[in-house]
Fold:
Amino acid sequence: MRITTLLLGATCCVLSASAQEKDWREIIECDAFRGHAGVLVLTAFAEDDAASESLCARVELRLRQSRIAVLKPTGKEYDAAHCPRLYVTVNRLQNAAVASVELTEYAILPRNGHFTEAPLWKRSRIVVNYAAPELQQVAIELVEEFCNQYLKCNPKGSSPIGPRPPRIWMSTDLLALYDTFACVSVLQDGEYTADEAQSLKQRTQFNRHLASRCNRNGTRHACVSCTYKYAHGNTVLDVTVSAEYSPRADLTQTVYMPICSFTAEGIDFDEACKLAARELAHRRKLAIANVTQRERAPTAPSPKSANSNGPPPANRDLSD
Structure:
């Protein structure tokens, strides 16, 4: 009798722990589905471009049917720094295939300010004795599981994208993270010039202005690329500032994410670079001010204690 009681007690503890773990997992997964304006769909079907495009169309249709916005890189709601990505992939192995659906989002590493692509939610399935249409259907079933989880975390009657939390970082605010800016490429009318000496001279000119206007001591670097053309007797310079981050599953590859872009115009290339460096310095100054203002924003005051004669402590823990 005593052994039976112990076994029942142990079983209840295991079930309770399992239920608690499930509850926490559901809470974490729901947090991953709230606060997004939509998702950017990226598909890959066993190196078959036609099948990948067909799969992408089916995935986007299924998302829209579930009231999940599909973002495009050219759309006004697209934000490179905050747009979550939905990867739908099908990879063929020797005797099987693997279909997977994964939701990711960029995250900032606190220790160095670099970007990485963090996984938020993932489901996968192995298929044997398959045909191409069957693989697409398996991928769509995983997308339906994603949609069901999304709708569960964003029930009907709430906003289609859930309550959007305050955004601490806007794309241009990321300029505040970087200490130095270096020009890595100069293109004329969208093409590299055949004169390497001229290209090196132009990069040196731009870097000289960046060093004088923008750079300060530090180890966090951002890259600047530009394309120039001549218009109405002036040099028009299109500037793009990008940040380095590590793509998922490949920490050896260097990838850059655009932070901001703008145009500068001068009487010649050197003057245009000078004005571009001044504009970049101004934008970073605004970014630093915006981030500082958010960090110093006052929080809601805590209620005073009945026995307190003064204001509550600034770092008081109100979790109780």
The mean pLDDT is 75.
